[in-house]
Description:
Strand order of the largest sheet: 2-1-5-4-3
Structural class: alpha+beta
CATH architecture of the largest domain: 2-Layer Sandwich
Order of helices and strands: HEEHEEEHHHHH
CATH superfamily of the largest domain: PAS domain
Amino acid sequence: MSGIESYFPMVKFFSQFVGNDAEVILYDTYKMEIVLIENAFNPETVVGSPIPDMEKRFIERELYVQEESIVNYRAFSHARNKLRSATHFIKNDNGQLIGMLTINYKVDELIELRGLLNRLISGSEPFQYKTDHFYESYNLSFEDLMTKTIQEALKNFNVPPERLSHEEKLELIRVLDEKGIFLMKGSISELAKILQTSETSIYRYISKL
Length: 209
């Protein structure tokens, strides 16, 4: 076997190892479709289905030129399960993208367990609502809401966005990730512009969370 077909045994190996809480998908980027899927979360996602929007954006932004993989980004399944995902770029000897291998792992139960452990460690405290966590979103577009959320988070720092330290950027991205901002289309690009950095750098920060 050569090319994308050589990854078929690896897909089956990963799926057997990680179990039913993870789906493993192999994409052909020439055909822009799925060529193999194991443990599919959505029964309608089958061989021949088109590449989803998230992976399409990786291709459009040519992230594969600088990176071998994008790991630990957030996504939702068809059934709205929270996922921790990773995509590996498959290239030929000339560095051309020929495929992608994505693993999506359900983390809902792990998030609940983390909350339980935090309560056991820190004790229960009355929850205090913070006004900056809530917006009258009915009169805001998704783009406006995304920008407003980022700007509100930046108010916690006393320097211009482009002057944030490495640790401050990591803290900012942690806060935005908890708010679910990176599930919104265009959020990575918008934050990269505000911080005057590359989208690849933002993905690196997210992978460290």
